[in-house]
Amino acid sequence: MESFILSKISESIAVKSRLAKDRDLLEIIKKAAWQIIHVFQSGGKVLFCGNGGSAADAQHLAAEFSGRFYFDRDPLFAEALHVNSSYITAVANDYSYDEVYARLVKAKGAKGDILIGISTSGNSKNIIRAFQECKKSEVSTIALTGSTGGQMKAETDLLINVPSTDTPRIQETHILIGHIICEIVERELFKEKEYDR
């Protein structure tokens, strides 16, 4: 059992090591952070969406922005789009589950906002539909996926594709990337607070 546990830890470390060595991917992560900074500086919103574990990650990262990350500061407008269960079940029942995020983008998204879609496969139909709706509303998009990017690769403005095809390892790395972005954003927007720590 101990060797099994160690093998899983080693697999997770290996994915993060590949990420650390991929200078192009590191540059994309930095670019994503600066896009989010610009959205907040301009009074825009950062929206998140995902399914299953990725929905949990979306909610987690939205809370880091709207609550706090490392230090006390003003809240930032970030929201995970799945948190209203009555809305999700109504739209899934009356229309299609594929439409649950696209309709919210149409209702809440505005020019200058950004939608971060999280999908390990990159093939989540409801996120693809939301990205397509973003184009109409001039909402920018960032996709967090696994290595191939899936179908979302062709629909997003910025692709952060974790170098793995193993769902749990991808999810673990999504949270690492999300936390790095949150810290960059918080430090840049609230420098005086950061220095007071």
TrEMBL record:
Cofactor detail note: Binds 1 zinc ion per subunit.
InterPro entries: GmhA/DiaA, Phosphoheptose_Isoase, SIS_dom, SIS_dom_sf, SIS_GmhA/DiaA_subfam
Subcellular location: Cytoplasm
Residues involved in Zn(2+) binding: 60, 64, 171, 179
HAMAP family membership: GmhA
Family statement: Belongs to the SIS family. GmhA subfamily.
Listed name of the protein: Phosphoheptose isomerase
Organism: Pricia mediterranea
